[in-house]
Amino acid sequence: MIILTVQNLQKAFGTDEVLKDVTLTLQNGQRMGLVGVNGCGKTTLLRILSGQLHYDGGSFSLSKGLRLGYLEQQCTVKEGNTVLQELEDVFLPVQEMEKKLRRMEEDMALVQDQKTLEKLGADYERLQARFEEGDGYSWPSLIQGALLGMGFPREQWNQDASTLSGGELTRLCLARLLLQKPDLLLLDEPTNHLDLNALSWLEKYLTGYKGAVIVVSHDRYFLDRVCTNMTEILLGVSEQYEGNYSRYMELRTERFEARMKAYELQQAEIERQEKVIAKLRSFNREKSIRRAESRQKVLDKIERLDRPMEEKQVHFSFGVNRKTGEDVLAVKDFEKSYDGRKLFDHVDLKMYAGDRIALIGRNGIGKSTFLKCLIGEETPDWGAARWGANVDLGYYDQQQKTLHGDKTVLREVWDDFVRLDQTQVRSALGLFLFTGEDVFSPVSTLSGGEKGRVALTKLMLRRDNVLLLDEPTNHLDMDSREVLEDALEDFPGTILAVSHDRYFINRFANKVAVMGEHGIEMFQGNYDDYMMMLEKRRAGQEDEEEFRGMTRTEAGKEKRRQRMAKEQLKVLKNAVKEAENRVLLCEEAVAEHESVMADPATYADPAGAEAASRKYQELKNALAAAYTAWEEAEEALAEAED
């Protein structure tokens, strides 16, 4: 059932026409990813759909009675509420119902009149049904699951909600919204400030969500796992695609190439026709001129295709001035605390030439601090780091604190590379879409994504052979992330990157370093390889739990017994399948021969009739035997499974 229809929606801010023609439909149960470059109007569209912003043209309609929930990037909480109370307030109507049910129970215990009792009983049943539908029995456990899933430990539940950090506040508001279970969820960057555990919890929650979802996110891994369809806003116009993010990227490329081919073919045909018309007119004869005019009329009526356009894309690559030695970095026994709270200790890390390490771990564990210790911006409380020979170190700061707000974009880059002339600096900035007067914009006026592109420009020009990257994909749109990943794939140096972007980790990493309070554990491969190894480890732990208390010999015998039992089950299942297929073949043969027996011509020859009857009996006997074999195979399988 379609619950949302948007038709030719338009919105402008002054002379800036953000949405020109947005059209989409959303069915109940669908989870739509809304994508496009930064500033294309994704948040504007969500604010229009939520009723917070007026639109200039077009229309949209929601199903009657539809309950809509909107997660903004800036969230608020009720003054005086604790973290737990903020979520308990979601279930205030249910709590009131429970109180009313208790009062009705007391009233029914005192009523003597049968009719009054029956009426009270009917009212009680109706209220009880509403109570159950509103999660009346399960709401405390739902709150606990949401808080733990969003990364709030129990000791934080009684904290004043207004004292939470920006990231914690976003997570609390997201948990509150999910518990309200609206029919349509509008989520604006819900994965911001979530660590990997919280991301995994949110993905599982949304994939099982019964309502519909529209989500704006730059997390491509999240969009792959959650979304059933995608809508792209490109140059103010929308286009809808079936499938997740990866499928959208395939279809987007196919559509663009098909449109470009159609455009080029039409342009070639127009050019050919114009040459023919010019040639006919050059003959300067009445008949030729009439033919030329006729062709011109046909040409004028052609509906000319516009050249397919895409947003401008960043294009760059990382090079190096020299190679490092084989040993790039050795960290021994790092330890760091802040205000008496220990972030990490006993951290060891070895990095070799060509390593591409993704450093992951829960929020607040100290990953960014660890990088700052490596570059000398912070000092560890204990331990040492030794860099190898010929290391040229490049650092990308997610907060862009190294940029100067009072400088222009051009001056910010040029001051660090004084040996380059203005043309060379502007050419480098042009690769990152800073063209024309853009280079004279003050850094303080830039968006997060624009500041990130300035920092990447400087990093590219440095040509360092070891890159330390702190959340490099934050604030970048998806196309820019893809280009960054392509550039890092071709980078001949060594990389250590802190990132929550699992898609990014899959693209660049050959090792995953998981940081905990008491050290780093290293895994070979990318993020998916890491998750696969975790699954194998969990399976191994389950096996250990199952065989706990047994000697090694006893455990080995039990494992062999279970393996043989599994193999036997496989043989029995195949036997059932074969027996079932045999029954189907026998039934088809009997049915086919019954048509022969029903044909009067069969009985014209007594000998032929006798042979047909004999064969019919043989087929029926074979069918009976097949049924018996099937039953015996099913019984054997049932006994083995018990």
Concise synopsis of the structure shown:
49% of the residues lie in helices and 19% in strands.
Can you describe what's shown?
With 642 residues, the protein is of the alpha/beta class. The protein has helices at residues 42-49, 83-88, 92-110, 114-133, 139-149, 166-180, 196-207, 220-226, 245-282, 286-301, 367-375, 409-414, 422-431, 448-462, 478-489, 502-508, 527-546, 552-597, 606-641; strands at 2-13, 16-27, 31-35, 57-62, 68-71, 184-188, 212-216, 229-234, 237-242, 327-338, 341-352, 356-360, 382-387, 393-396, 466-470, 494-498, 511-516, 519-524. Among the domains are: 249-301; 327-537, P-loop containing nucleotide triphosphate hydrolases (Rossmann fold); 554-641. The chain is built from 19 helices and 18 strands. The radius of gyration is 35 Å and the shape is extended. The model has no long low-confidence stretch (mean pLDDT 87).
